[in-house]
Amino acid sequence: MTQTRSLTIFGATGSVGESTLNLVRECTGRFGIKGLTAHSNYQKLSQLALEFRPDCVVIADDAYYRPLADSLSGTGIDVRAGHQALIELAGEPVDCVIGAIVGIAGLAPVYAAVQAGQQIALANKETLVAAGHIIMPLVKEAGATLLPIDSEHSAIFQCLKNESSAAIQDTTLTASGGPFRQLTRQQMGQVSRAQALAHPNWSMGPKVTIDSATLMNKGLELIEAKWLFGLAPDDIKAVIHPQSVVHGLVNFKDGSCLAHLGAADMRIPISYALDYPHRLSWQAERLDLIQLAQLDFAAIDTDRFPCFALARQVMAAEPEQAVVLNAANEIAVAAFLADDIRYLQIADVVDSALAHFSGCAPTTSIDDVISLDQTVRRFLSAQPNLC
User: Fold this and answer.
1) Which of these, 57, 83, 60, 87, lies nearest to 71 by C-alpha position?
2) Do 189 and 95 meet the contact criterion of CB atoms below 8 Å apart?
């Protein structure tokens, strides 16, 4: 009989959290939920807790502790609140920690899980974008296991399994191109929030969906891949692939190439991480190559997608520039979603922040990373012409 694997899901009410719990529902008896967390959506967290009966739930915003605790009164579920509660839960023994909190807010719990030597299924790309130089050495030191949930990184991870790093020529991540793949830069200047949120292939949360439209998401993924796989910037490429069927490719020095194909469904890379090193049997969508008929690829136009160009530039810079890039992008995307800036201004905000914060002091700890992140946010908040 297969042993039940215990899971703690950070960001349970978000897009990746929902996809993970959908897999848990489908694979009855395979997984048990130890912990669930949310930022402020206590109603949804309460509903999930009543369904899955975890040992513990954490609401990060402690203003919602009382209504959450009241809704779960008498259930025996341990209800906690606040940032420190997240950190403590991340270190508690469990078979797999799912790091699905969006943005820099997900860094501290993942860091705590790494310190505790956990197996971590990582969806939060900001952890490695902003702190890869700190996290990856600690993964080795603490004996932790880091498994990517991003479809592209999962693809590369699987292609590299049992391969020597010396055999790798280069790697390629694919990008759908988002909803504006065929628009001119002038047309992009007129797009609305609703248009930017209408991704043609993937179902994601609003922040990641906007990042996919600007191709900042792909730029962040290049930086993440650099740290995750220990690759040089020149050995990581990206191409437009509108069908989102090929998720990643690895070229080897002997001239061979391995590619990973799969349906555009986040549950597929999630399932690989949850049951690693095994493959989970579930009713995943199967590819029909005949029905697909063709697969298209194209170069990324950096004039139309300047956010990608900025991330590519930062990938080869000091790690502090990636902290600035990420913080500025989070602020700019939030401003766009609030209708405070236009779509093309997202790249302008990020570029201005990178120029202002060139030559930062080295970040040698997580506290340093968080401090720089907060400094960038304060700077941008004081710039009325930016946000």
Assistant:
1) 57
2) no
Number of domains in the chain: 2
Q: How many helices (H) and strands (E) does the chain have?
A: 17, 11
Taking the C-alpha atoms of residue 55 and residue 39, their distance in angstroms, rounded to an integer, is 18
Q: Do 191 and 143 fall within a single domain?
A: no
The C-alpha atoms of residue 151 and residue 201 are separated, in whole angstroms, by 13
Nearest to 46 by CA among 69, 18, 76: 69
CA distance 178 to 218: 11
Asked, for residue 282, whether it belongs to a domain, the answer is no
Both 242 and 139 in one domain: the answer is no
Nearest to 147 by CA among 124, 165, 120: 120
Same domain, 11 and 124: yes
**Quick one: CA dihedral 126, 129, 132, 136, positive or negative?**
positive
Q: Give the per-residue pLDDT at 386.
A: 59
CATH of the domain at 136: 3.40.50.720
User: What is the domain range of residue 88?
Assistant: 5-148
Nearest CA to 30 out of 271, 243, 286 is that of 271
Q: Assess contact for 322 and 314: CB atoms under 8 A.
A: yes
What average pLDDT does the structure give for the chain? 95
Q: Are 337 and 193 in contact (CB under 8 A)?
A: yes
Q: What is the pTM of this model?
A: 0.94
Instruction: Give the span between the Cα atoms of 302 and 175, in whole angstroms.
Output: 13
> Within 10 A of 86 (CB to CB), how many other CB atoms are there?
23
What count of residues does the chain have? 387
The DSSP secondary structure of 238-302, one letter per residue, reads EEE-TT--EEEEEEETTS-EEEEE--S-THHHHHHHHTTTS-----PPPP-HHHH-----B---T
Question: 380 exposed, middle or buried (CB, 10 Å; 0-12, 13-18, 19+)?
Answer: buried
Helix H or strand E encompassing 372 = helix 366-381
Degrees, nearest 5: CA angle 66-90-212: 90
pLDDT tens digits for range 266-304:
999 999 999 999 999 999 999 998 888 899 999 999 999
